[in-house]
Design a protein that fits this description.
304 residues; alpha/beta; Indigoidine synthase fold; 2 domains; 13 helices; 47% helix; globular; binds pseudouridine-5'-monophosphate; binds manganese (II) ion
């Protein structure tokens, strides 16, 4: 598969600088315009200010792009551009048809690994949906974490999911889940409320980097998931969100929303039914994750 690097990422590879991968589904399908474009740019800026190089990943015209220019970011953010949500399953046809795809956490992880990148920041990881015992809806992010060597920094599984079952599946797959300076798995928009203990707590980026080195040097393939709570100033307490989440799930059911449309539908519904508060929290948490990812990438690089 051909990978097209932008100049910034090419320079980072040449100069052996730490790189952080960023996804594009959050731009095209996770956040509304124009917030999405603003977030896409500020994530890249946050990575640079922390001392690493950002590589936002997408498939454009059937070509995998590692690092995007502002024009590409604007195309992904424009709701009239008809950008497909692209997970692992969708990659072959996008390549074959020359299509445009915004990569999910799963697809971004696997493409970032091919590009030699080891750290990736997203908002909330996908996971086991509530009612998965009948819908079988489990995000492709989970099997990807099981097989792809990548440190993924998120603010926990999205709170629309069954967080406990998501952590169980990650345990089955042998994926270390690390609470960064926290004891409870954060619930995306909320710092607490999942009721699930983190399997392991580490408080320093350098300790996370050491674990990554040990894991992959030992030949233990697959990802490492870091859960980083949303900043307190932007969080929405879980109790306050419950009504909006329940209503969103009920609406999705009633309207027969299925497959890859489920998560974007739920996020958009909750955005409009919390007077933008969930949007503000989502922006703050993803920025917070980009910064931590850059710190981890720098520590990982120093330990090489
Ligand atoms: N984090 C966010 N917003 C998002 C996502 C993550 O803050 O929209 C995206 C990621 O691309 C993730 C996807 O892979 O949601 C999960 O979708 P699904 O549940 O269909 O696997
Ligand atoms: Mn799904």
């Amino acid at each position: 598969m051909k990978l097209k690097y932008n100049n910034e990422v090419k320079g980072a590879i040449r100069n052996q600088q730490p790189i952080v991968a960023l996804e594009s589904t959050i731009i095209s399908h996770g956040l509304p315009y124009p917030d999405n474009l603003e977030v896409a740019k500020s994530l890249e800026q946050a990575v640079r200010e922390t001392g690493a190089i950002p590589a936002t990943i997408a498939i454009l015209g059937g070509v995998v792009h590692i690092g995007l220019n502002n024009e590409a970011l604007a195309l992904l953010a424009d709701k009239d551009s008809q950008i497909e949500k692209a997970s692992r399953r969708d990659i072959p046809q996008l390549l074959a048809s020359g299509g445009n795809g915004a990569t999910t956490a799963a697809a971004t992880m696997l493409l970032a690994q091919k590009a030699g990148i080891s750290v990736f920041a997203t908002g909330g990881i996908g996971g086991v949906h509530r009612g998965a015992e009948t819908s079988f809806d489990i995000s492709a992010d989970l099997p990807e974490l099981a097989r792809t060597d990548m440190c993924v920094v998120c603010a926990g599984p999205k709170a629309i999911l069954d967080i406990g079952l998501t952590i169980e599946v990650l345990e089955t797959s042998g994926v270390p889940v690390i609470g960064y300076q926290c004891d409870e798995v954060p619930a995306f928009w909320s710092r607490n409320g999942s009721g699930v203990d983190v399997p392991l707590r580490l408080d320093r980026p350098g300790d996370i980097a050491s674990l990554m080195h040990q894991k992959w040097q030992a030949g233990l393939e697959g990802g490492v998931l870091v859960v980083n709570p949303v900043p307190a100033s932007a969080e929405i307490p879980a109790a306050e969100l419950k009504t909006a989440i329940d209503a969103a799930l009920q609406q999705a059911e009633q309207q027969g929303i299925r497959g890859k449309a489920v998560t974007p539908f739920l996020l958009a519904y909750i955005g409009t039914h919390t007077s933008g508060r969930s949007l503000a929290a989502n922006k703050a948490l993803v920025l917070n994750n980009a910064r931590l990812a850059a710190e981890i990438a720098m520590a990982y690089h120093r330990q090489k």
